Amino acid sequence: MHKGATANGQQHGASRQGYGKTGGPIEKENIPFVDSDHEDDRFASSSVPAPISRISTVDQENDTMTESQENLARAYAARHQPSLAERRMQEKLTVSIDNSINESDLVEEAKDKAMELNLIDERARGLRRNSISLPSLNVNELERLAQQSRDGSVSVIDSESDSLSGETTVTPETPSTPANFKPMLQFNDDSSSDEDDKRRSKNLFRTKRRSSIAPLPALRLNDKEIMSDDFDDLSVLSNQASLTSVNSLVSLLKEKFQNVPAIIRQKKRETQDYKLRAFVCILFLIIVFLVGYAYVMYNQKLLAKSYFENIKFHKKTRNFRLLDGKGSELLTGVLGTSLNIEQPYNCLPKDLKDDGSVCYEWNSKARLYMNVAKSPGPPDIKCYTFHWESLLADLYPTDCFDVSEERGFWYGGGLTKGIDYILGKATIPAGPFVTGDINMHQWGNALKRYFLNSRGVAIQVDEKTPLYVSVNTDSGRRLCLQGRNDKFAFVNRQTQFPELKYTVCSGPDMKTLHNGLMQKSLWDGLTERDNDVIKSLLREPVWQIPASKQEDLTETAIYNYTESIIALGYLRLGHVLVNEFWQRTIGDFRLDTERFPTLDQRVNILHRRGFRVSFMIQPFISTESSNFREAVAKKLLIYERESERSIPALTRYKSTTSAGVLDVTNNASIPWLAEQLKKISETVEIDSYFVDFGTAFNIPRYYQCSQTLGNPDEYKNYFMERFEGTLSIFGVSSAISVPRPPAFLSLPPVNSSWSGLQSIIPTMLSYGIIGFPFLMPGPVGGDFVLPTQQLKKMYSYYSFDLPPLPDKELYIRWLQLATFLPVLRFTHLPSEYGDDTVTTIAKELADVRQRVLPLLERFSSIAMDEGLPIIRPLWMLDSTDVNCFSIDDEFSIGDGMIVAPVLQQGETVREVYLPQGVWKDGIDESLRKGSRWIHNYHVPQNKVAYFIKMPDNTRF
């Protein structure tokens, strides 16, 4: 401060300690001055007022006041006589700036003459109770502050807490004129303790803020500059101080609570950042995976080239897909599963074929040829050939195809051990695809290398392929075809190394495809006599003379049995079938004169009565037969392998434990057998023969024929071809190709039980699908009875006893089913029960049979033309109806009748499904609409459910 100011201060020092104009002493009083009111930037955003610095006391000795300043001090002293309550609330002193104060009021109060101050209540009227600290500002800043106050009061809180200790202030400019300065003080009426009064009287102004770093700026009042150290020596290090209001505590708590969400938000922000980082990482990994997957699939698609328009084949993985015209998958699989994953190469020119086949070779291990095959049917059927050539002796080419229900239903092959009509449901380990006995082998007595899918795809395997088949034994549900040589079924190698050759065909639907692939025109070579035999088998029953043992079959037994047939009176006379016991020893090929002394006369009587007599023959010759020695001498039998035809190969057949097999590939064997059968005809007039071939497992294990057989089942084909036109054959026990008409394929023997009854329809349907239109079921009631004790091992040569009289309900339900089958075959007669109920039911079924015959004859002619079966699955009526695909307890006769017999013991109701169309109920003759299920359809014991197809224009 300059000297003039100091002298002036000394000149008026006495007057400060003297009396005022009123004559009273002027007490020493600390006049509060205000500090800067600049807010901190951080609190400005949250509307929290910044603290204001304390004002220290003024040093009396070093201060000089003018007259106007003394008048202002006296006015303040006269006004500031706090009451007890006011002193108690000294700490909560609030200073407010009234928005209504104008500039003239400030001027009046700043005059040298002391004026009477307004009452506190009047001055504080209309002001907010929230306190603000008086800022140390110049006049211009005070005017701006007043302008803000008109919009709303500014409240400044003072807090000595650590949370606000770090705040900073901005030093205001030195005021140039004090004209508008007018301090106004307001006290609260709240009471406080005496102890607080003493403390507050001593320290009217607040202590310094600990964290203040800027010095307290100077205050200019009426051209008098007062420094901070002139007020209070405690304010040297403080740049701001504030007075607390009534709401200071509330404001402090509010500030604290406002800090809590900030901390929470900070933690939440940290948590969100962690989650965001995790999400970004996961998203990055997903993107990498998708990009990699897309890259792999793109390369897979590029490598899966198209062949012949509809085939997709990936050379490296060997994935195979057959597509239809719309690009949908019809067949999927993996080719060459026995190969390691290796990159194939194009075949060398010397290995290429002249037919234009695509050829690939896998590193001197195998070659694959693919080509288009000529369609055997209409032009909408497309076929492709696949031919694997193994280049190693121990490498068996294997192709597997998906047979899960998602890929459609698979049929064909033949009858499986588990009587599986749908092939995809079977479980068959890999084994040779040859005929056998389903009691101990995987496949039944008739096979065909033909597999059909409900999506309109078929697979036909070449007959020269040493075929092994497995179903659902590897990972996944797959049908696997394998070319493999072994020591029995395919011991005679057709090629140096195993090969697998097959054809895949596709059509618009399953029915069209199946019709196109079936063998056509079975009329070729058929004589009028053969046609008569077919009609007679459809119209007349086959009466099989019951004889489990040789001694049971006698001339008298035949006569008595035929007499019982005639006594029935309601069934037609038909074919009398005499089993192999008509000869003393199997292979004699002549009558046993002891048991049949006058059989020729008996047969003549039977002919006159209207019967046809048939004998069962077989190509087996027992070692006990007199013909065995002759056959060995003439080398007419199959011989042991590598024995130079000197040792006959032996096997077992039914009750014969040791027998040789005629070598039908030997040109000398056929004339010899024909001569033996001719001798029988000269003695007894035989109408036809039933040939019992047995199965592939009845051929000697180490067999060798004059001409090499690809597999044991080819023996049947040779036999039928050699005797074509020589013998009249009306039935065969086994086959791998359609026997020449009028020969019917006999179903395998079944047990006399409900399970045996339930196996008939799936067997009929399976054999019809693979191309056998003329089928002959076994006798009503079953073929044999299993022993009471389960055999540890079953052999196909076992001769089981004929069943005793079956249970009455089983016999009736069996007879109801057989009434609708092509051939009605009996062993036990209905009259054996001596029950009028059985007789009545049998008579009613005989009448039903007469109504069924026209359908059987009509569709037998269609079968001769188109190769379609007489007994058909329901999907042949509507191949687009998925409900028809899995039904194996109903069947149709052509497309004119549906039969749904009861196959469960004690049942009188069943579920019936009718395909599209209008059907006439055979029980009550009501009309029923198709494409729906009939639930709980009532079928009494004396009735059988069947429905006749009505014309399409039929209306209810």
From TrEMBL:
Similarity comment: Belongs to the glycosyl hydrolase 31 family.
Q: Where is this region: Disordered?
A: 1-53, 147-204
Q: Name one Pfam family in it.
A: Glyco_hydro_31_2nd
What is this protein's name? Glycoside hydrolase family 31 N-terminal domain-containing protein
Q: Where would you find the membrane-spanning parts of this chain?
A: 276-298
**Record carries keyword Transferase:** no
Q: Which PANTHER family match?
A: GLYCOSIDASE FAMILY 31, SITS-BINDING PROTEIN
Naturally occurring in which organism (per UniProt): Anopheles culicifacies
Presence of keyword Hydrolase: yes
Domain Glycoside hydrolase family 31 TIM barrel as annotated: residue spans = 580-708, 751-856
